[in-house]
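WP5 quarterly update. Target: Prenyltransferase alpha-alpha toroid domain-containing protein. Source organism: Aspergillus cristatus. Length: 412 aa.
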Amino acid sequence: MSDAVFNRDRHIKYYRRCLKTFLPDLYTGNDSNRMLLAFFTIAGLDILGVLHDETTPEERQGYIEWIYHCQVPTGGFRGFTGTDFGIEKRTPENAFWDPASIPSTFFALVILVILGDDLSRVKRVECLQWLLRLQREDGSFGDIVGPDGEIEGGRDLRFCCFAAGTRYILRGKRGEGLEDVKDIDVARLVAFIEACQTYDGGMSEAPFCESHAGLTYCAIGALTFLNRFSSDKPAPVVSPGSEEFESLVRWLVARQTSDLGENDEEQPTRSDKTQENLSQAVEALRLNGKVEALPPIEPPTEESLQWAGFNGRSNKAADTCYSFWNTATLAMLDRLGLVDAARNRRYLLEKTQHLIGGFGKGVGEPPDLLHSYFGLVSLAFEGEPGLNSVDPAMCTSHRGVQHLHSLPWWQA
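Structure tokens (predicted):
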């Protein structure tokens, strides 16, 4: 196999364009997620090792000020400034119209760390008190505090991971300066995470749901933030040799696939007549010999096995972001060596790396910030030249993590 080429200069231009010009109109619906888009852009330039080359000190300070503008007075960060109606007009009765969210808070803190901020203006106490209000009785976390203090948002592992990550960043080694701040119920959170492991070894959004690679990453990331790898009684799912650990690793490794979705045909939609006629719809579900009429599945060819990305669920085609979700999880479990890194690299660089820079979701698709960032990080795990090394749990460069660990509450 010939060597695939990583077009580093084009990726730098892509991120610079995303940072300093208007994003395409398709991003309009994601304006409330501007903090996440900012994370992908700033962290992408950092992993490429050019953040300080492509931005001036004044620009970086401006980004820091924008993030602090997104800080909510009662703790946490909003996703963008569009909900901010001013401190003078904010009351306990209308505060839920301008809520802090757990994902935005985590990404805001990580961006500040990447930019070299000392987090001295972060409302640590208020943020951790707010975080405590978002934990449910079953140990899981919601996204925002709604009217009358209600916990709103899905009950799944994404918010659990961001909550654990926020706690990790702000409490530090021993919670210096937070002696009077009540901690979240770590034991209940761990129990909820463990209950999300399914029969096949993967992790689902909540107990008894389908396993999913992105949610599996969130589960293991949360346990990493909660120090459940090196504690006296590590969780079984992160304990090598346990049934839970081994089945999880097998499931993750099985996500690597040579099915790139190149030959997928769009499934025909049912006609209005069929949808209106329930009996016909039920009849259409009957097999009636259709199984025998299915064409045989051809074995993979030597040509097709040159590329092998990752999927997020069984029987799905490869997707750029799952090259991250799966390899990052395996990296945290110290089992990254079990995947075929060379074929994943070829998939990313020859199938989803775009001509203008960035990565698309799948073969032939245009680049977007999410898939571009996760494509970079997956390559960084394998030591791609021109990329800084990445911490899989924090999902940012080790340079940024070292800065975090230099802060006062991490030196205690």
